[in-house]
Structures are given as C-alpha cells and as structure tokens.
C-alpha cells in the first residue's frame, strides 16, 4: 500500500477550482502505482464533480514532466528536483505504507545492523517516511551524493542503485529489502563486472572506428542536457566524425533504424546503463564516448546529471 495523500490532492484541486471554473487537471504516475491512481481519480471525481485526465505516457521520475497544457498536474511517486522550475505541479511522493508490526520489524532490523557501525543509509523516496528516524540520503533521479562513511546500507528493492553506489564509492553495498525483510549484498566484484561490460562496449569503438553517429537529445524537462549535447557535437566536429542530431521525448529501440555506427544518448544515463542490451546498435553515454575520443579506458567515468548540464 502507498500513501497517496488524498486529502492533500483534494484541497489543492479545490484551490484551483476557486480560480478557474473548469480546470484541466492531469494526473501522472509511474507504472507500478498507475492502477491505484486510477482508483484515486474515481474517488476524487465523485467528491468534487471535476474531470481529471490520466496521463498515460511515461513517468520515469521528477525529470519527466509531460509537455502538455494543464492547470494542475498531480505527479505521484517522486519529489521535485532542485534544478528544475516547476509550474502548477503538485508532487505526491507515494510513501510506502506498512502496518505497525512490519514497521517495528524493519526498524529493529536496521537498528541492529547499524549498531556500533559507521553506516550511511541510502534509499529511494518511497521509504523516506519509514526511515525518517535514520535521516537517510534520498537517491533522486540518477544521482546519489553520499558522505564518505565506512559503510553504505541501501534500503529498497532492485539492484541498479546499489550497483552504481558500489562502483561510485568503491565499496561493498549491503541491501535491506523492506518488502521481504531480508538483507543482501552487492560486492565490488559485481559492480566491476557491470562496469567491465561497459568498458568492453567502449573498447569496440577502437576496432570499428565510427564514421557517423546519431546524437540523441532526450527532450524531457529534467533530461534536456543541452550543454552536454552541444559539447559532444563540438567534440565530434573536432574529431571529424559525422553525426545526425536527433531529438525525442521517450527513446525506444524501434525508433533507431538509421545508417549510423552507434548512438550517443544525451539524457538519463539509465537509458544506456539499464537498457543497452535491447538496442541493435551500440548506445553510449556522453562520458563513455568521450573516454573513446580521449583514448582513456583506464578508469570508467560514470555519467550523472548535474545542474551544470542545462
């Protein structure tokens, strides 16, 4: 169960109704809670006698705000990013809800694990409320900036975030999954295997030097890294590599059928790091392609979105 903060949403819509008689209300949610949000829409419609649209496009994060007209966008599942100016957006984090017995068990497990240890706790937004007594660091979007502590405990499910934490901070990462109440671990060896696959992909560029590449700008508000895009175009010019400038809101494999040797994806790094195996031609982050251009494979350079990218 998730806390969808129904009362907060209703009060916000009431405020909008005072300003506009027939406002365009749009609701956006990630796939995992979309059906729950549909129930919320029905509940609110009956209470307020107002029309509400469900946005059925992507919802990858607070970086992914739809480019449509609305008087209010209710965005579930994320918190705002500091480098984006939002307008008429209400964020509902959708904190994961547990019963009292589960909460006690989770808190006890974490307290026992962290006792007498120098541990930094990292998690995703869904578990922020559950873990508030531990003051965890929240991983927002593709970024995780932690303190240099002796050990990192990631609370959540999935392996992408702990893999990246392991590589970035050169540590074994302990994982606690609050859904199944179990600990796991990602060792540095696993993260190095993950990175080795990317280094192998980059090394192939040296054997088949690209003559023409597609440079894709992801046109989402929090992924439109225009400075990075322009910088990589300049590097291609300097190295006399042909290119096609491309732009798209949501990238899928079937969109890429062009006569190029590879693609550079200027957007969320997870498009490359999570999904590269789905694409018929090699795809690279800007940092990865620069490693090739600079002839430097000694150390993998992780691509992360920063305020300076825009």
Written overview of the protein:
This protein is about 35% helix and about 20% strand. The protein is an alpha/beta fold and about 300 residues long. The protein has a five-stranded mixed β-sheet. It has a four-stranded parallel β-sheet with strand order 3-2-4-5, with helices on one face. Strands 13-12-14-15 form a four-stranded parallel β-sheet. Helix 4 (about 160-170) links the parallel strand 9 and strand 10. Helix 4 (about 160-170) packs across helix 5 and helix 5 (about 190-205) crosses helix 8. The two termini are about 35 Å apart. The model has no long low-confidence stretch (mean pLDDT about 95).
Quick structural summary:
This protein has 310 residues and is of the alpha/beta class. It has helices at residues 6-19, 34-48, 100-114, 160-169, 188-207, 226-238, 270-275, 286-293, and strands at 2-3, 25-28, 52-54, 72-76, 89-92, 95-96, 119-123, 137-138, 151-155, 173-177, 182-186, 212-218, 242-248, 262-266, 283-284.
Spell out the blueprint of helices and strands.
Blueprint: E1 2-3, H1 6-19, E2 25-28, H2 34-48, E3 52-54, E4 72-76, E5 89-92, E6 95-96, H3 100-114, E7 119-123, E8 137-138, E9 151-155, H4 160-169, E10 173-177, E11 182-186, H5 188-207, E12 212-218, H6 226-238, E13 242-248, E14 262-266, H7 270-275, E15 283-284, H8 286-293
Parallel strand pairs: 2-3, 2-4, 4-5, 7-8, 7-9, 9-10, 12-13, 12-14, 14-15
Antiparallel strand pairs: 1-6, 10-11
Helix pairs in contact: 4-5, 5-8
Give the class from helix and strand content and strand pairing: alpha/beta
Low-confidence segments, given as residue ranges, are none
What percent of residues are in strands? Answer: 15-25%
The percent of residues in helical segments reads 25-40%
């Amino acid at each position: 169960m998730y806390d969808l903060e129904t009362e907060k949403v209703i009060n916000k819509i009431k405020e909008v109704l005072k300003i506009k008689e027939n406002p365009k209300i749009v609701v956006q949610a990630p796939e995992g809670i979309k059906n729950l949000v549909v129930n919320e829409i029905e509940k609110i419609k009956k209470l307020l006698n107002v029309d509400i649209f469900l946005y059925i496009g992507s919802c990858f994060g607070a970086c992914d705000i739809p480019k449509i007209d609305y008087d209010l966008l209710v965005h579930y599942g994320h918190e705002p990013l500091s480098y984006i100016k939002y307008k008429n957006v209400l964020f509902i984090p959708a904190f994961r809800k547990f019963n009292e017995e589960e909460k006690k068990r989770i808190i006890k497990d974490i307290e026992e694990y962290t006792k007498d240890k120098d541990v930094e706790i990292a998690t995703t937004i869904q578990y922020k409320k559950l873990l508030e007594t531990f003051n965890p660091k929240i991983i927002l979007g593709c970024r995780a900036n932690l303190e240099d502590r002796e050990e990192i405990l990631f609370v959540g499910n999935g392996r992408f975030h702990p893999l990246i934490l392991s590589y970035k901070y050169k540590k074994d990462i302990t994982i606690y999954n609050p859904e199944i109440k179990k600990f796991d671990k990602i060792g540095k060896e696993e993260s190095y295997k993950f990175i080795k696959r990317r280094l192998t992909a980059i090394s192939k560029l040296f054997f088949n030097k690209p003559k023409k590449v597609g440079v894709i700008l992801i046109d989402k508000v929090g992924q439109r890294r225009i400075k990075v895009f322009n910088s990589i175009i300049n590097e291609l010019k300097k190295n006399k590599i042909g290119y096609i400038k491309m732009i798209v809101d949501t990238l899928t494999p079937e969109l890429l059928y062009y006569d190029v040797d590879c693609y550079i994806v200027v957007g969320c790094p997870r498009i490359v790091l999570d999904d590269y195996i789905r694409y018929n031609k090699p795809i690279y982050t800007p940092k990865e392609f620069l490693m090739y251009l600079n002839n430097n494979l000694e150390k993998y350079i992780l691509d992360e979105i920063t305020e300076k990218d825009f």
